[in-house]
Every structure is written in C-alpha cells, then in structure tokens.
From TrEMBL:
Pfam families: Abhydrolase_1. This is Alpha/beta hydrolase. The keyword Hydrolase applies. The keyword Hydrolase applies. GO terms for molecular function: hydrolase activity. InterPro entries: AB_hydrolase_1 (IPR000073), AB_hydrolase_fold (IPR029058), AB_hydrolase_sf (IPR050266), Epox_hydrolase-like (IPR000639). SUPFAM superfamilies: alpha/beta-Hydrolases. Residues 56-293 form the AB hydrolase-1 domain. The lineage of its organism: Bacteria, Pseudomonadati, Pseudomonadota, Alphaproteobacteria, Hyphomicrobiales. Coiled coil: none annotated. Keywords: Hydrolase.
C-alpha cells in the first residue's frame, strides 16, 4: 500500500510540474529568436541600433538564471546607444540543449560562436557574469578574433575549495536526478526562488520586482534545472583545465568584483585572473555583493564604453 501511495504521489507531483511548466512558459515567453547551433538552439534577444561604426555587445548570464539577469538594468541601458545581444546559455531560459551532461564552457562558447556567426557578428565586446566568467575566458582563448574586449562581472575563473551543493550532485545522478526534476523541483523551488535570489544580492537589497523582471522562475522547469546542475557540477574541473592557458588571452579585459561577494570569491577568481592575463584591469568594489550589474550598472557601462572606444581607435590605426 505504501508503494502504491508513493507512486500516486509522484504521479500527482509530475502532473503538477507539467502544469507549472506550461504556466511559467506562458508567463515568461521568449523575447527573441532561436538560432540552430550544434546540440540545440540558442535564444538571442537583439536590442539597440545596428550601428556598423561601433562594436556590438554580447552579454552572457551566469548560473541559475537566464538572459533576463543581464537585461535589467544593464543590457537595456547599453542598448540605448549600442547593439546588444543577450544570450540564454545552452539549456537555460529559452535555449535548448540536447545532451544535458555536455555542459563544458568549451561547448557553450562554441555554440555561442555559431549563433553569432549566424547573426553576422564577427567581433564584439563580451560581458559575462558569475559562472559565465569561465565561458568568457574560453571565448577569448578559443575565438580570440571575435573578442575585441572582455568585461567580467564577479566571474568564476579558477578552481575553489569545496563543492557546489549536494542537491546539484543528486540532480546529476542517473534516474534519481530526472525523477526529482520532474516531480518536486518546481513545487519546492517556487518557495525557494525568492530567498535564493535575495541571497545573491547580499549585502545589497534585491529590487522588489527582480524575480519576475528577470524571469528567474524559468529555472524551475525540469530540463533547465538539470542543465544548471550539470553546469555547476562540471565547472570546477573545467576551470582547472583551462586556467593554465589564461596568460594567452590577448583581449583587453576588465574585471569588476565586489569584496563582499559570498558566492564567488574575489581573491580566488578575479585577483588570480587579473594576475594571469596580460591586459587585465581589476576594479574591486567595497561592500558590494555578487550582483555587480545591478549594483553598479553605470560603472560597468563606462568600462564597456571605454573598451569600445579603445577597439575602434585600434582598428582605425590598423587601417592607416
């Protein structure tokens, strides 16, 4: 009888999850186009003027989020003057990923390169946050001709002590992970989304409408949650493998990191990266937490503008 009850409960939770997925997708529909790449489709929101005289800006979000985390307020502000391409990483937001376990920054950088080729973007300023720091570094290493400048906001770049949470390891366990993702993750996660987002802003206060404005609850859909867990559980090994190559990065690089960031350590990541990369500039913000793009959008915008101006000056000098 207990077994029958458990099966019935799981079935009910699975139905509830399916209903929740439909509701979430109706509430937070895609905002851009979906471009076919190796292993899936990437959702790209293309904003701002198509000014060929200035470089476009590519913005890539971190873990447990989607392109909405880069759009408000930073992406929208930059798009007043520049072409801004906001990208959902493979498996997140409205981007798909056929093989969830294929989660490496190398794969994600390659997919993003394919999408940019499809959009005719051969060179850009790349802005990355948090986990996407590993991805920005990878783009600069694997596609140096594409990255005219790199802005890294509280980036993950190096291996760290400890793990990424037991539940992420459980989610990547065969059978059990998918079972949990399709039954309890959405109902339970809906209670935890707001407190989790608030903790990312600490010691700053999260804007009241942030969770909905950034479409964060899209993470609770089964495949997105599983993709996120795979990204996180394989990240440490990936950055350990690519970190020795960082001195090869030639793109002018700006790192902006708060010294009160309790999610990504400024010492382990940004200071070490700035020391390794020849053209890196590090800005440490006192008493600022993890969400640099929300806390200091004006500073980030100025640094992006400065990189664009430098790249334009260099290209003019090369032409003469």
């Amino acid at each position: 009888m207990i077994a029958i009850g458990a099966v019935a409960m799981l079935a009910a939770l699975a139905l509830l999850t399916q209903a929740g997925v439909l509701w979430l997708q109706g509430k937070f529909p895609p905002q851009g186009e979906r471009i076919a790449v190796s292993g899936g489709k990437l959702h790209v929101v293309d904003l701002g003027p198509r000014n060929l005289a200035t470089l476009p800006i590519v913005m890539i979000h971190g873990a447990s989020s989607n392109l909405g985390a880069m759009r408000v307020p930073l992406g929208d502000a930059l798009a007043l003057r520049h072409r801004v391409l906001l990208i959902d990483r493979p498996g997140h937001g409205w981007s798909s990923r056929e093989d969830l376990a294929n989660s490496s920054p190398a794969m994600q950088a390659e997919a993003i390169g394919e999408a940019l080729d499809a959009l005719g973007v051969s060179r850009a300023i790349v802005v990355v946050h948090s986990m996407a720091g590993a991805l920005g570094a990878r783009l600069a290493l694997d596609q140096p001709q594409r990255v005219a400048g790199l802005v890294m906001l509280a980036p993950v770049t190096h291996p760290w002590r400890g793990g990424v949470g037991t539940y992420n390891r459980v989610m990547t366990t065969p059978v059990l992970g998918p079972l949990l993702a399709h039954t309890i993750t959405l109902p339970l996660g809906s209670l935890l989304t707001e407190p989790g987002a608030r903790s990312a802003f600490t010691p700053q206060t999260m804007p009241e409408d942030y969770v909905d404005a950034s479409a964060t609850p899209l993470l609770l859909r089964p495949r997105a949650f599983l993709a996120n867990s795979w990204d996180l559980t394989t990240l440490k090994e990936a950055v350990a493998e690519q970190a020795p190559r960082y001195p090869q990065i030639t793109a002018p690089t700006v790192l902006i990191h708060g010294d009160a960031d309790e999610i990504v350590s400024v010492d382990i990541h940004s200071r070490a990266f700035a020391a390794a990369v020849p053209q890196a500039k590090l800005i440490v913000l006192p008493d600022v937490g993890h969400m640099v793009q929300n806390t200091a959008p004006d500073l980030v915008q100025r640094e992006v503008e400065a990189l664009i101006a430098t790249a334009v000056t260099k290209s003019h000098a090369a032409m003469h």
